[in-house]
Protein backbone atom coordinates (compact mmCIF):
# COMPACT_ATOMS: atom_id res chain seq x y z
CA UNK A 1 0.00 0.00 0.00
CA UNK A 2 2.86 2.38 0.75
CA UNK A 3 4.44 1.60 -2.62
CA UNK A 4 1.16 2.46 -4.35
CA UNK A 5 0.79 5.64 -2.34
CA UNK A 6 4.14 6.93 -3.59
CA UNK A 7 3.96 5.45 -7.09
CA UNK A 8 6.82 2.93 -6.89
CA UNK A 9 5.51 0.55 -9.53
CA UNK A 10 8.72 -1.54 -9.57
CA UNK A 11 8.21 -2.33 -5.88
CA UNK A 12 4.56 -3.14 -6.53
CA UNK A 13 5.58 -5.46 -9.36
CA UNK A 14 8.06 -7.34 -7.16
CA UNK A 15 5.58 -7.69 -4.30
CA UNK A 16 2.92 -9.04 -6.65
CA UNK A 17 5.31 -11.63 -8.08
CA UNK A 18 5.93 -12.86 -4.54
CA UNK A 19 2.17 -13.17 -4.01
CA UNK A 20 1.34 -10.29 -1.69
CA UNK A 21 -2.31 -9.89 -0.70
CA UNK A 22 -3.83 -7.39 -3.14
CA UNK A 23 -7.22 -7.19 -1.44
CA UNK A 24 -5.90 -6.41 2.06
CA UNK A 25 -7.45 -3.18 3.37
CA UNK A 26 -6.33 -0.55 5.84
CA UNK A 27 -7.83 -1.14 9.28
CA UNK A 28 -8.83 2.51 9.79
CA UNK A 29 -10.22 3.63 6.43
CA UNK A 30 -10.82 0.22 4.77
CA UNK A 31 -8.94 1.47 1.73
CA UNK A 32 -7.03 -0.97 -0.43
CA UNK A 33 -3.83 -0.38 -2.37
CA UNK A 34 -5.98 0.45 -5.40
CA UNK A 35 -7.55 3.35 -3.50
CA UNK A 36 -4.07 4.66 -2.70
CA UNK A 37 -2.93 4.37 -6.32
CA UNK A 38 -6.09 6.05 -7.64
CA UNK A 39 -5.90 8.92 -5.14
CA UNK A 40 -2.29 9.61 -6.13
CA UNK A 41 -2.83 9.16 -9.86
CA UNK A 42 -0.29 6.32 -10.11
CA UNK A 43 -1.78 4.55 -13.11
CA UNK A 44 1.06 2.01 -13.51
CA UNK A 45 0.50 0.80 -9.96
CA UNK A 46 -3.24 0.58 -10.57
CA UNK A 47 -2.56 -1.34 -13.78
CA UNK A 48 -0.51 -3.94 -11.91
CA UNK A 49 -3.02 -4.28 -9.09
CA UNK A 50 -5.92 -4.82 -11.48
CA UNK A 51 -3.92 -7.42 -13.41
CA UNK A 52 -3.10 -9.28 -10.20
CA UNK A 53 -6.76 -9.24 -9.20
CA UNK A 54 -7.74 -10.52 -12.66
CA UNK A 55 -5.18 -13.34 -12.42
CA UNK A 56 -6.66 -14.31 -9.05
CA UNK A 57 -10.23 -14.13 -10.34
CA UNK A 58 -11.20 -11.08 -8.29
CA UNK A 59 -13.79 -9.51 -10.56
CA UNK A 60 -15.23 -7.17 -7.89
CA UNK A 61 -11.89 -5.79 -6.74
CA UNK A 62 -12.19 -2.61 -8.82
CA UNK A 63 -15.50 -1.71 -7.13
CA UNK A 64 -14.49 -2.45 -3.55
CA UNK A 65 -15.65 0.41 -1.34
CA UNK A 66 -13.77 1.97 1.55
CA UNK A 67 -15.28 3.76 4.53
CA UNK A 68 -18.15 5.93 3.41
CA UNK A 69 -18.73 3.86 0.27
CA UNK A 70 -15.91 5.56 -1.60
CA UNK A 71 -14.49 3.56 -4.50
CA UNK A 72 -11.20 4.00 -6.33
CA UNK A 73 -13.10 5.71 -9.16
CA UNK A 74 -14.47 8.30 -6.72
CA UNK A 75 -10.96 9.20 -5.58
CA UNK A 76 -9.44 9.31 -9.06
CA UNK A 77 -12.28 11.55 -10.27
CA UNK A 78 -12.06 13.82 -7.22
CA UNK A 79 -8.33 14.45 -7.72
CA UNK A 80 -8.60 14.86 -11.49
CA UNK A 81 -6.41 11.92 -12.51
CA UNK A 82 -7.59 11.37 -16.07
CA UNK A 83 -5.53 8.27 -16.87
CA UNK A 84 -6.67 6.50 -13.71
CA UNK A 85 -10.32 7.39 -14.36
CA UNK A 86 -10.02 6.12 -17.93
CA UNK A 87 -8.38 2.84 -16.86
CA UNK A 88 -10.82 2.15 -14.02
CA UNK A 89 -13.83 2.71 -16.27
CA UNK A 90 -12.43 0.35 -18.90
CA UNK A 91 -11.87 -2.20 -16.11
CA UNK A 92 -15.64 -2.07 -15.43
CA UNK A 93 -15.72 0.30 -12.47
CA UNK A 94 -19.26 1.12 -11.38
CA UNK A 95 -20.29 4.55 -12.68
CA UNK A 96 -23.35 4.62 -10.42
CA UNK A 97 -21.59 3.73 -7.14
CA UNK A 98 -22.89 5.97 -4.34
CA UNK A 99 -21.23 7.14 -1.18
CA UNK A 100 -22.71 6.54 2.27
CA UNK A 101 -23.56 9.03 5.04
CA UNK A 102 -20.24 8.65 6.83
CA UNK A 103 -18.12 11.43 8.28
CA UNK A 104 -14.91 9.63 7.32
CA UNK A 105 -15.72 9.89 3.63
CA UNK A 106 -13.49 12.41 1.85
CA UNK A 107 -15.22 15.58 0.81
CA UNK A 108 -18.18 14.60 2.97
CA UNK A 109 -19.74 18.00 2.34
CA UNK A 110 -20.58 16.87 -1.19
CA UNK A 111 -23.22 14.70 0.41
CA UNK A 112 -24.09 11.05 0.70
CA UNK A 113 -25.40 9.27 -2.35
CA UNK A 114 -22.84 10.99 -4.60
CA UNK A 115 -21.61 9.23 -7.73
CA UNK A 116 -18.13 9.50 -9.24
CA UNK A 117 -19.51 12.24 -11.50
CA UNK A 118 -20.38 14.32 -8.42
CA UNK A 119 -16.80 13.90 -7.21
CA UNK A 120 -15.41 14.77 -10.64
CA UNK A 121 -17.53 17.93 -10.59
CA UNK A 122 -15.94 18.92 -7.28
CA UNK A 123 -12.48 18.14 -8.68
CA UNK A 124 -12.93 20.50 -11.62
CA UNK A 125 -11.17 18.42 -14.30
CA UNK A 126 -13.01 18.73 -17.63
CA UNK A 127 -11.64 15.57 -19.20
CA UNK A 128 -12.58 13.41 -16.22
CA UNK A 129 -16.17 14.60 -16.52
CA UNK A 130 -16.15 14.06 -20.29
CA UNK A 131 -14.91 10.48 -19.96
CA UNK A 132 -17.51 9.68 -17.31
CA UNK A 133 -20.36 11.18 -19.34
CA UNK A 134 -19.23 9.54 -22.58
CA UNK A 135 -19.18 6.12 -20.89
CA UNK A 136 -22.70 6.50 -19.52
CA UNK A 137 -22.54 8.41 -16.22
CA UNK A 138 -25.93 9.89 -15.33
CA UNK A 139 -25.95 13.71 -15.34
CA UNK A 140 -29.40 13.69 -13.69
CA UNK A 141 -28.34 11.69 -10.61
CA UNK A 142 -29.28 13.48 -7.38
CA UNK A 143 -27.46 12.94 -4.08
CA UNK A 144 -28.88 13.24 -0.56
CA UNK A 145 -28.36 17.01 -0.60
CA UNK A 146 -30.58 17.24 -3.67
CA UNK A 147 -27.63 18.23 -5.86
CA UNK A 148 -26.99 17.30 -9.43
CA UNK A 149 -23.37 17.04 -10.57
CA UNK A 150 -23.71 20.47 -12.17
CA UNK A 151 -24.87 21.87 -8.80
CA UNK A 152 -21.72 20.49 -7.17
CA UNK A 153 -19.62 22.17 -9.86
CA UNK A 154 -21.31 25.53 -9.19
CA UNK A 155 -20.94 25.15 -5.42
CA UNK A 156 -17.20 24.46 -5.77
CA UNK A 157 -16.73 27.32 -8.23
CA UNK A 158 -16.05 25.11 -11.27
CA UNK A 159 -18.31 27.00 -13.67
CA UNK A 160 -16.37 25.81 -16.72
CA UNK A 161 -17.94 22.38 -16.23
CA UNK A 162 -21.53 23.51 -16.75
CA UNK A 163 -21.51 22.82 -20.50
CA UNK A 164 -20.42 19.23 -19.80
CA UNK A 165 -22.57 18.47 -16.75
CA UNK A 166 -25.81 20.28 -17.50
CA UNK A 167 -28.58 17.81 -18.41
CA UNK A 168 -29.88 20.37 -20.91
CA UNK A 169 -26.55 20.81 -22.66
CA UNK A 170 -26.53 20.01 -26.37
CA UNK A 171 -22.78 20.24 -26.85
CA UNK A 172 -21.33 16.99 -28.20
CA UNK A 173 -19.23 14.91 -25.85
CA UNK A 174 -16.09 13.48 -27.47
CA UNK A 175 -15.71 9.74 -27.81
CA UNK A 176 -12.75 8.14 -26.09
CA UNK A 177 -10.91 5.02 -27.29
CA UNK A 178 -9.96 2.29 -24.82
CA UNK A 179 -7.40 3.33 -22.23
CA UNK A 180 -3.79 3.04 -23.29
CA UNK A 181 -3.04 1.50 -19.90
CA UNK A 182 -5.17 -1.56 -20.47
CA UNK A 183 -2.85 -4.55 -20.64
CA UNK A 184 -4.47 -7.83 -21.63
CA UNK A 185 -1.23 -9.92 -21.45
CA UNK A 186 -0.27 -8.64 -17.99
CA UNK A 187 -2.29 -11.20 -15.96
CA UNK A 188 -0.80 -14.09 -17.95
CA UNK A 189 2.81 -12.91 -17.67
CA UNK A 190 2.35 -12.18 -13.96
CA UNK A 191 1.21 -15.77 -13.44
CA UNK A 192 4.19 -17.03 -15.47
CA UNK A 193 6.57 -14.91 -13.41
CA UNK A 194 5.23 -16.56 -10.27
CA UNK A 195 5.52 -20.04 -11.75
CA UNK A 196 8.89 -19.68 -13.49
CA UNK A 197 10.58 -17.69 -10.74
CA UNK A 198 11.48 -14.11 -11.55
CA UNK A 199 15.21 -13.36 -11.87
CA UNK A 200 15.60 -10.05 -10.07
CA UNK A 201 19.34 -9.54 -10.42
CA UNK A 202 20.64 -7.97 -13.63
CA UNK A 203 24.13 -9.44 -13.56
CA UNK A 204 25.10 -11.30 -16.69
CA UNK A 205 24.64 -15.05 -16.45
CA UNK A 206 26.76 -15.81 -19.50
CA UNK A 207 30.03 -15.06 -17.71
CA UNK A 208 29.37 -18.02 -15.40
CA UNK A 209 28.72 -20.35 -18.32
CA UNK A 210 25.20 -21.11 -17.11
CA UNK A 211 23.28 -19.83 -20.13
CA UNK A 212 23.87 -20.37 -23.83
CA UNK A 213 24.27 -17.06 -25.66
CA UNK A 214 22.08 -18.29 -28.51
CA UNK A 215 19.25 -18.60 -25.98
CA UNK A 216 19.57 -15.04 -24.67
CA UNK A 217 16.61 -12.67 -24.46
CA UNK A 218 16.80 -10.26 -27.41
CA UNK A 219 15.81 -7.31 -25.20
CA UNK A 220 18.14 -7.52 -22.19
CA UNK A 221 20.77 -9.98 -23.52
CA UNK A 222 21.27 -11.13 -19.91
CA UNK A 223 18.64 -13.75 -19.11
CA UNK A 224 17.42 -16.85 -20.97
CA UNK A 225 14.15 -16.83 -22.88
CA UNK A 226 11.41 -18.64 -20.99
CA UNK A 227 8.13 -17.11 -22.27
CA UNK A 228 6.71 -16.69 -25.76
CA UNK A 229 4.26 -14.13 -27.09
CA UNK A 230 1.00 -15.41 -28.46
CA UNK A 231 0.38 -14.96 -32.19
CA UNK A 232 3.86 -13.77 -33.24
CA UNK A 233 5.74 -16.37 -31.16
CA UNK A 234 8.75 -14.20 -30.30
CA UNK A 235 10.49 -15.26 -27.12
CA UNK A 236 11.59 -13.09 -24.20
CA UNK A 237 12.72 -13.58 -20.64
CA UNK A 238 9.92 -13.30 -18.12
CA UNK A 239 11.42 -10.15 -16.53
CA UNK A 240 11.45 -8.22 -19.83
CA UNK A 241 7.95 -9.45 -20.66
CA UNK A 242 6.69 -8.30 -17.26
CA UNK A 243 8.33 -4.88 -17.57
CA UNK A 244 6.97 -4.52 -21.10
CA UNK A 245 3.39 -5.15 -19.99
CA UNK A 246 3.80 -2.91 -16.93
CA UNK A 247 5.14 0.18 -18.69
CA UNK A 248 4.34 0.23 -22.41
CA UNK A 249 1.01 1.63 -23.56
CA UNK A 250 -1.28 -0.71 -25.43
CA UNK A 251 -2.31 -0.74 -29.08
CA UNK A 252 -5.81 0.21 -30.17
CA UNK A 253 -6.47 -3.00 -32.11
CA UNK A 254 -10.11 -3.62 -33.10
CA UNK A 255 -11.51 -6.53 -31.14
CA UNK A 256 -8.39 -6.89 -28.93
CA UNK A 257 -8.38 -4.13 -26.33
CA UNK A 258 -5.17 -3.79 -24.38
CA UNK A 259 -2.76 -5.66 -26.66
CA UNK A 260 0.89 -4.72 -26.11
CA UNK A 261 3.23 -4.18 -29.11
CA UNK A 262 5.94 -6.79 -29.50
CA UNK A 263 9.40 -5.14 -29.21
CA UNK A 264 10.72 -7.27 -32.09
CA UNK A 265 7.97 -7.13 -34.73
CA UNK A 266 5.48 -4.54 -33.34
CA UNK A 267 2.53 -6.91 -33.70
CA UNK A 268 -0.03 -6.98 -30.91
CA UNK A 269 0.51 -9.38 -27.99
CA UNK A 270 -2.71 -10.58 -26.38
CA UNK A 271 -1.09 -12.96 -23.88
CA UNK A 272 2.09 -14.85 -23.03
CA UNK A 273 2.66 -18.57 -22.68
CA UNK A 274 5.45 -20.61 -21.18
CA UNK A 275 8.13 -21.52 -23.65
CA UNK A 276 7.71 -25.13 -24.69
CA UNK A 277 10.56 -27.52 -23.99
CA UNK A 278 10.51 -28.72 -27.61
CA UNK A 279 11.33 -25.21 -28.82
CA UNK A 280 14.51 -25.15 -26.75
CA UNK A 281 15.50 -28.62 -28.00
CA UNK A 282 14.93 -27.57 -31.61
CA UNK A 283 17.29 -24.63 -31.17
CA UNK A 284 19.97 -26.94 -29.72
CA UNK A 285 19.64 -29.39 -32.63
CA UNK A 286 19.65 -26.72 -35.33
CA UNK A 287 23.46 -26.17 -35.43
CA UNK A 288 24.05 -29.94 -35.76
CA UNK A 289 21.58 -30.16 -38.63
CA UNK A 290 23.21 -27.25 -40.41
CA UNK A 291 26.66 -28.81 -40.13
CA UNK A 292 25.34 -32.16 -41.36
CA UNK A 293 23.73 -30.57 -44.41
CA UNK A 294 26.79 -28.51 -45.37
CA UNK A 295 28.96 -29.37 -48.38
CA UNK A 296 32.01 -30.54 -46.36
CA UNK A 297 32.27 -33.89 -44.68
CA UNK A 298 31.13 -34.09 -41.06
CA UNK A 299 34.01 -36.36 -40.12
CA UNK A 300 37.65 -35.35 -39.90
CA UNK A 301 40.38 -37.09 -41.80
CA UNK A 302 43.24 -38.80 -40.01
CA UNK A 303 45.62 -35.97 -40.86
CA UNK A 304 43.21 -33.36 -39.55
CA UNK A 305 42.73 -35.35 -36.36
CA UNK A 306 46.49 -35.58 -35.82
CA UNK A 307 46.96 -31.85 -36.45
CA UNK A 308 44.14 -30.89 -34.10
CA UNK A 309 45.44 -33.15 -31.34
CA UNK A 310 48.52 -30.96 -30.90
CA UNK A 311 47.72 -27.36 -29.86
CA UNK A 312 51.11 -26.10 -31.02
CA UNK A 313 50.70 -27.64 -34.44
CA UNK A 314 47.19 -26.24 -34.73
CA UNK A 315 48.36 -22.72 -33.89
CA UNK A 316 51.20 -22.97 -36.37
CA UNK A 317 48.87 -24.27 -39.05
CA UNK A 318 46.37 -21.45 -38.45
CA UNK A 319 49.13 -18.86 -38.53
CA UNK A 320 50.52 -20.29 -41.76
CA UNK A 321 47.11 -20.10 -43.37
CA UNK A 322 46.73 -16.47 -42.39
CA UNK A 323 50.10 -15.35 -43.90
CA UNK A 324 50.53 -14.60 -47.61
CA UNK A 325 54.18 -15.20 -48.62
CA UNK A 326 55.70 -13.05 -51.39
CA UNK A 327 56.91 -14.66 -54.58
CA UNK A 328 60.66 -15.26 -54.58
CA UNK A 329 62.89 -15.66 -57.63
CA UNK A 330 66.66 -16.33 -57.33
CA UNK A 331 69.01 -13.73 -58.83
CA UNK A 332 70.25 -14.43 -62.33
CA UNK A 333 73.85 -15.66 -62.65
CA UNK A 334 75.92 -13.62 -65.10
CA UNK A 335 78.40 -15.53 -67.20
UniProtKB/TrEMBL annotation:
Name the domain of life.
Eukaryota
Tell me where the ANK repeats sit in this chain: 29-54, 68-100, 112-144
Q: Does the keyword Transferase apply?
A: yes
Question: What Gene3D superfamilies does its record include?
Answer: Ankyrin repeat-containing domain, Zinc/RING finger domain, C3HC4 (zinc finger)
Q: Where is this region: Disordered?
A: 280-335
SMART domains, sorted: ANK
EC id: 2.3.2.27
Which SUPFAM superfamilies does the annotation name? Ankyrin repeat, RING/U-box
InterPro entries registered for this protein in UniProt: Ankyrin_rpt, Ankyrin_rpt-contain_sf, RING_XB3-like, Znf_RING, Znf_RING/FYVE/PHD, Znf_RING_CS
Q: Which residues form the RING-type domain?
A: 217-266
Q: PANTHER family, per this entry?
A: ANK_REP_REGION DOMAIN-CONTAINING PROTEIN-RELATED, PALMITOYLTRANSFERASE HIP14
Q: What is this protein called?
A: RING-type E3 ubiquitin transferase
Amino acid sequence: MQACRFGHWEVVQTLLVFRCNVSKADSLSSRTALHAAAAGGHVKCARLLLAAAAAAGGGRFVNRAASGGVTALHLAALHGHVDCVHLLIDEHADLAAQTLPCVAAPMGSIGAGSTPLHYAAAGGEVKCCQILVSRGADRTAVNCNGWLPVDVARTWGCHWLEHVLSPKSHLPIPKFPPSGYLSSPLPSVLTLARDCGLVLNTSSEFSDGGVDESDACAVCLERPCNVAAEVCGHELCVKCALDLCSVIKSYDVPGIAGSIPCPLCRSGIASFRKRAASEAEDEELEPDLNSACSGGSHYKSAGEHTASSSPEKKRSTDSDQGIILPLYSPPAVLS
